[in-house]
Design goal:
The termini are far apart. The chain has three helices and five strands. It has one domain. Helices cover 32% and strands 22% of the residues. The model has no long low-confidence stretch (mean pLDDT 95). The protein is an alpha+beta fold. A hairpin with a 5-residue loop joins β3 and β4. Strands 1-2-3-4-5 form a five-stranded antiparallel sheet, with helices on one face.
Length: 124
């Protein structure tokens, strides 16, 4: 039980770190080749701002137990999310947007939740 809890905690820390990486990449993309607009994971990967180990994740092929997504990318901002592939790889979902604050909730494993409104910010 303790080993599994330690692994989940490490996976969650990796999920948070990866969302921060996505946020930094979005800022770079927007201020350079995006001309003020934010990009999708595919666009960030093509621009070599994120590694394919992030952009190609799915629930079936996670990175450190989590998979990632971006929606609503454009001139108005973006929403990014990280979700555990299964309940044994993590217990919290994470979300962020162009403000850079990362939020956590106890969502469902295997489903991305892009909601930041009403969620608890983690110790950013």
């Amino acid at each position: 039980p303790n080993l599994l809890a330690s692994r989940r905690a490490a996976n969650e820390a990796s999920g948070i770190s990866t969302l921060r990486t996505i946020g930094t990449s979005e800022s770079t993309y927007s201020s350079t080749i995006g001309f003020g607009a934010y990009g999708t994971l595919a666009q960030l990967s093509t621009a070599q701002l994120v590694d394919t180990s992030i952009s190609n994740t799915t629930a079936a092929a996670p990175k450190s137990g989590y998979f990632y997504g971006i929606q609503n990318a454009g001139a108005g901002g973006y929403n990014s999310a990280a979700a555990p592939a299964t309940s044994s790889t993590g217990t919290r979902n994470f979300a962020s947007d162009e403000a850079g604050v990362i939020y956590a909730n106890t969502g469902s494993a295997g489903a991305l939740d892009y909601t930041t409104t009403g969620q608890k910010p983690i110790g950013n």
